[in-house]
Amino acid sequence: MEINPITGTFGAEISGIDLSSEISETLAEALRDALAKHLVIVMRNQPLGPDQQQVLTRVFGEPSVNPYAPGPDAHPEMTSIIKEADERTGVFGGGWHTDLSFLDNPPGGSVLVGIDIPPYGGDTMFCSQQAAWDSLPEAMKDLLENRDAIHVGKPYGIRWAPPVEEQAMKESTKRNDPDADRERFHPAVMIHPVTGRKSLYINPTYTHRLDGLTEAQSSPILNQLFEHCTLPEHCLRLRWSKDMVAIWDNYSTQHYAINDYHGFRREMRRATFQSAGIDAWRGKTSARAS
Ligand SMILES: [Fe+2]
Question: How far apart are CA 39 and CA 249, in angstroms?
Answer without folding.
Answer: 5
